[in-house]
């Protein structure tokens, strides 16, 4: 009989309260505070985590934007187990295994038309750095080596590699690690409460902000710019949907000036916006897509860059025996990750999760906008199965009110993410209407508790 993964009394699922917590230097964590009062998870299934004290926590963040099919889908678990027993590892440097080629083919079939070459990485951060390197190298192999400048956007998150950090636009993430890459500039973000507060889906105002690329071209000259990278929907910067016409305008300008357009779809890929990729849902095709997170449903670390045939073919002019792109990672195309990725796509397709986004997005939108008028709420934004509730910051303590609200939600059994003054929501696509109600009611109660 299969053990119940939600029963914390199962052997091997007990918390590590008696173990030393000190050796682990935790990422993006106040380590001393956490270790004085640790928050431990010991199991997960479907929409819920289980803590070491036996509490069930509704996961309104899909882990970290990634568990789109819910936790521990049997098909993915089984695929990883079987692959681990068959082939644990083989390098992708001058070698291969069948699953890597199969997964690349499946991803190419899901991607927008013309994007049909897949380079595997191990994370979204590596995918972004890879895409930026591909962009620069693309222009160089075409004899246009002056194109080295990279254009990001304010409020953007592109991982924590030096390339992604350089084009990103969240100041606190960048502050401690400079100097970063040179030859980088940034577009303005599209967040404006005067025009876009409480918008539903894509806001009507803001397409003109894409024209700021024209100003950057005037300063730097288009012949020096390799690529523009944006998230179709800004994620960690506060869930900012693109204004109607904004991405279309960026595409038009990049095409006009010979600049590659990169969409960072680490969050928006694999069903989050109601299609396999956000670019398809939003009707704009870039030259490169970065992906990760939902690629394996979060089960095994994996990322990738999906390139257009035109980009790929530019590298293939080299002699046949030459390494066309001098780049890669030890674990690129790892067998366990490929098995998880194939099983994840099977799960999304066979359980109808790519189609479920559009089916539940109206219900999701109606649910989260019920918080309009709740204490401290100054904006609500949503698109697909994403949302952010922006709070008025406490004077002299930005982010503190939102952080306290998140703690109240956790105590009440709902996991919500904080991003500055935003409560960010990105639940598994399997969320039910009743669970949506639970999330919203829990947030409402938390907001009525915090000062």
Automatic annotation (TrEMBL):
GO biological-process terms attached to the record: biotin biosynthetic process
Keyword terms of this UniProt record: Aminotransferase, Pyridoxal phosphate, Pyruvate, Transferase
InterPro entries the record matches: Aminotrans_3 (IPR005814), Aminotrans_3_PPA_site (IPR049704), PyrdxlP-dep_Trfase (IPR015424), PyrdxlP-dep_Trfase_major (IPR015421), PyrdxlP-dep_Trfase_small (IPR015422)
UniProt GO MF annotations: adenosylmethionine-8-amino-7-oxononanoate transaminase activity; pyridoxal phosphate binding
Cofactor names: pyridoxal 5'-phosphate
Pfam family, one: Aminotran_3
PANTHER family given in the database record: ADENOSYLMETHIONINE-8-AMINO-7-OXONONANOATE AMINOTRANSFERASE, BETA-ALANINE--PYRUVATE AMINOTRANSFERASE
Protein family (similarity comment): Belongs to the class-III pyridoxal-phosphate-dependent aminotransferase family.
Protein name: Beta-alanine--pyruvate transaminase
Organism for this UniProt entry: Pseudacidovorax intermedius
């Amino acid at each position: 009989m299969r053990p119940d993964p939600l029963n914390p009394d199962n052997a091997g699922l007990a918390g590590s309260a008696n173990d030393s917590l000190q050796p682990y230097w935790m990422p993006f964590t106040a380590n001393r505070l956490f270790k004085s009062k640790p928050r431990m998870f010991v199991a997960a299934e479907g929409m819920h985590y289980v803590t070491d004290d036996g509490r069930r926590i509704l996961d309104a963040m899909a882990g970290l934007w990634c568990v789109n099919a819910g936790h521990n889908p049997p098909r993915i678990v089984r695929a990883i187990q079987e692959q681990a027993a068959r082939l644990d590892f083989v390098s992708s440097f001058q070698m291969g295994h069948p699953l890597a080629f199969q997964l690349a083919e499946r991803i190419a079939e899901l991607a927008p038309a013309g994007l049909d070459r897949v380079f595997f990485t191990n994370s979204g951060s590596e995918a972004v750095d890879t895409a930026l390197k591909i962009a620069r190298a693309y222009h160089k192999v075409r004899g246009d080596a002056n194109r080295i400048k990279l254009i990001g956007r304010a409020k953007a998150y592109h991982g924590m590699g030096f390339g992604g950090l350089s084009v990103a636009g969240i100041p606190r993430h960048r502050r401690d690690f400079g100097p970063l890459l040179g030859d980088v500039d940034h577009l303005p973000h599209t967040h404006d409460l005067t025009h876009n507060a409480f918008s539903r889906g894509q806001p009507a105002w803001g397409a003109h902000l894409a024209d700021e690329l024209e100003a950057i071209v005037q300063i730097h000259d288009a012949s020096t710019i390799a690529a523009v990278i944006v998230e179709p929907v800004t994620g960690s910067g506060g869930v900012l949907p693109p204004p109607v016409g904004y991405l279309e305008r960026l595409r038009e300008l990049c095409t006009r000036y010979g600049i590659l357009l990169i969409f960072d779809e680490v969050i928006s890929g694999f069903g989050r916006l109601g299609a396999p990729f956000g670019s398809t849902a939003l009707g704009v095709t870039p030259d490169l897509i970065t992906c990760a997170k939902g690629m394996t449903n979060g089960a095994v670390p994996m990322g990738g860059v999906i390139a257009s045939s035109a980009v790929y073919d530019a590298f293939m002019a080299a002699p046949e025996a030459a390494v066309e792109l001098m780049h890669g990672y030890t674990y690129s195309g790892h067998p366990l990750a490929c098995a998880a990725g194939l099983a994840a796509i099977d799960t999304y397709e066979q359980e109808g999760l790519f189609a479920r986004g559009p089916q539940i997005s109206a219900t999701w939108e109606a649910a989260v906008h019920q918080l309009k008028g709740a204490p401290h709420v100054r904006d609500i934004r949503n698109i697909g199965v994403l949302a952010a509730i922006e709070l008025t910051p406490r004077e002299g303590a930005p982010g503190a009110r939102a952080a306290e609200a998140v703690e109240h939600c956790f105590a009440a059994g709902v996991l919500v993410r904080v991003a500055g003054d935003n409560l960010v929501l990105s639940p598994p696509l399997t969320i039910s209407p009743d669970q949506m109600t639970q999330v919203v009611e829990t947030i409402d109660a938390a907001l009525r508790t915090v000062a």
